[in-house]
Write a structure and sequence with these properties.
This is Phytanoyl-CoA dioxygenase. One of its GO terms (molecular function) is iron ion binding. Pfam families: PhyH (PF05721). By secondary structure, the protein is α+β, with helices and mostly antiparallel strands. It has a single domain, classed as Jelly Rolls (Sandwich). It is built from 8 helices and 16 strands. It has helices at 8-17, 28-44, 56-59, 63-66, 78-84, 87-97, 124-127, 265-268; strands at 19-22, 70-71, 101-109, 118-121, 135-140, 151-153, 166-167, 177-178, 188-189, 197-201, 206-208, 220-227, 232-234, 240-241, 247-248, 252-254. The strands form 5 sheets. Strands 1-10-5-12-3-2 form a 6-stranded antiparallel sheet. The longest helix has 17 residues, at 28-44. It is globular, with a radius of gyration of 17 Å.
């Protein structure tokens, strides 16, 4: 496996805009492997504490309840841990963070046709990494665009403070928290092909479109990382891991929730 890194121009773009798309970081064979593994997990049914799909009858028309995201698959699946700790990701993250990275979280989103979007939010509201912030590595398993529920980001919003969310529109978002776009900024779509990876700062405001396609999934494998200098993290994300899989257990933890929850404003507090 050839380990590539980003150019100085790409690092400057990340620092300026708060995000960076690295094209074709993972091969089509690797993406197919991930897709097949997670479709197998779905077909095998619930995994208590990690994955709770409902039957079509019990979902009562909400397709996302039949295809919910999987939280922390690296804790139950060796292939997920392998990709969470992938050397190519760590190589790029070392340059973006300007220090050794630590892996904090993995997630898999199925996002089937008809699925709601996710309201604008900031990841570090949930991960609570201090000092500094987390960085997401968002890998497209399918083409990801405005039609099938792709991501949109707000460039330059990494300089914004972490907001306390207000309630989102439940008709549009499967999560109930939403933040506001700072004056003078606007969201843009992040168009990705399978194997592309979108890296973005944990303060960057972002969300996703609903999947309005008739037959296209928008699957994605998402991981979060922080720097070795991190001294505090949300307790949902412990332990953090070095690239060799060594757990880091000396980080102070604080109360936290999964990244993007279904909690109401009252429940947040």
């Amino acid at each position: 496996m050839m380990v590539e890194n980003i150019t100085e121009a790409q690092k400057e773009q990340f620092d300026s805009d708060g995000y960076l798309i690295v094209k074709g970081l993972f091969s089509s064979e690797e993406i197919e492997q991930l897709k097949n593994r997670f479709m197998q997990i779905h077909s095998e049914g619930p995994i208590p504490g990690y994955f709770s799909p409902l039957s079509e009858e019990d979902a009562k028309g909400d397709i996302l309840k039949m295809y919910p995201r999987i939280m922390h698959p690296h804790k139950i699946d060796s292939l997920s841990m392998k990709y969470l700790l992938d050397l190519r990701l760590f190589s790029i993250l070392t340059k973006l963070l300007e220090e050794e990275p630590l892996a904090a979280q993995s997630m898999f989103y199925y996002k089937p046709p008809g699925a709601k979007g996710q309201a604008l939010h900031q990841d570090n509201f949930y991960l609570k990494m201090e000092p500094g912030t987390c960085i997401a590595a968002w890998t497209a398993i399918d083409p990801s665009n405005e039609e099938n529920g792709g991501l949109y980001v707000v460039p330059n919003s990494q300089h914004a403070e972490i907001q306390c969310p207000h309630r989102a529109d439940p008709e549009k978002s499967f999560t109930r928290e939403e933040v506001d776009i700072p004056d003078g900024l606007k969201p843009i779509p992040a168009i990705l092909e399978p194997g592309d990876v979108l890296f973005f700062n944990g303060n960057v405001i972002h969300g996703s479109y609903p999947n309005t396609s008739k037959d296209k999934f928008r699957r994605s494998f998402i991981c979060h990382y922080a720097g070795i200098s991190t001294t505090k993290a949300g307790n949902f994300y412990k332990p953090l891991y070095k690239q060799d899989g060594t757990p880091v257990t000396d980080i102070e933890t604080t109360e936290s929730n999964p990244c993007g929850t279904e909690f109401t404003q009252a429940e947040i507090h």
